[in-house]
Structure formats: C-alpha cells, structure tokens
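Methods — Computational structure assignment.
A single polypeptide chain was analysed. Its primary sequence is given first, followed by the predicted tertiary structure written as structure tokens.
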Amino acid sequence: MCIRDWAYVVGSLDRGVVARDIFDTLLAEHGDDTGLLLDIANLAIDQDDLERAADFYVMVVDLNEADTDANNDDNNKDMLVAAGVWYSNQSVGRYDDALEVLDRAADLELIPTDGTMLNRLRAYYNYAKETKTQSEAETDPVLKQELTDKANGLFDRTIEIGVAMTNNFPANANGFFYLSLAQLETGDYDASDANFKTYQELSPDTP
C-alpha cells in the first residue's frame, strides 16, 4: 500500500490528525497532483471539515483549467458549486469566496440550471443579511455607511439573480422565496408580497 492510500485508511479509522499530517507532507512535495488533492478533500469531507474540502476542490479546478487536457474538466462545475455551498455555510462564512466560485460555476454552464442559480441566489441573500447585521452593530459612522451600501448592493444583486431565476424556472418555489425576501429588504413590498404568494402557491404545504 502506498503512503497516500495508507494515509486515507488511517483517516478512516478516526486517526485523522495523523492522516492529515501525512497528506500535508505529500502536498508539499506533490501540490499539483489532482488525485492527491481530491484525496485530501475527501478526507476533509469525512471529518466534516467542509471549509478545507472547499479549498482543495477549488485547487483541483484551478489545476484542471490551467492544463490543456479538456478530458478532466467534466466535474469542475460541480466542484465549484459544492465549494460555494460550503464557503457560504454560516459556520464558515467565507461569502466572498462563495460568490466567486459560484459565479465561476455559472459561467461554465452553456444553459443555466436551477440548482446553480438557486445556490447563487441563496449565497448572495445570506451574505447581504450578514452584512446588514454587521452594519447595524457598527458604531463608526463611516464603516456603518460602507457596510450599509455593501448590503444594499448585495440585496440588489440578489434581486437580479432572483428575477432571472424565476423567469427561467417558474416552477421552482425557492426562487420566488429568496426573491421575495430580498425585495422585502429593499422596500419593494408589493413585489415581495406577490412573489411570496407565488412561493406559497408552488409550495402548498408551507405554513
């Protein structure tokens, strides 16, 4: 058994610290080995370290896009989407990274998909809400205004994506849900109410 396989087996036996040290040593010597990077990502997933897994997924995509072999690009979009979802998890909170990789994933789609678009919509909305919360807690007037402006811009971008999603995927209830929430934040109450009613119609079991 090679050291790479042994490291993964050790990690599977709950000796993750040992396996991680071995992988880090291998990484220093073989940082451009996409197979190794995926092994490290898989170990991180098993250990519920989704932030680390996201970092390695992005590394793999970067290497795949940098080479001349188009045959290894099939999973790039899915890895970017997964990384974006993990980055935007509240326990991680790396929203700038999340938006970057989710936008990259969207750029790889010849035809938009509702899954990618919904993950972008959700990430933009959650980032906007997080930024608004920060602005409300900020006491420095200059910083407070900067955060407020940033939140408003993120809400506006959420609405743009929400409108595009509801136009392209009018049967997806969640598109209307996040669009409605963002419009509520910007004071467009009539549009928010109309879109929330559509969400309820598409989700009859919603309380």
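Note: The first helix runs from residue 3 to 12.
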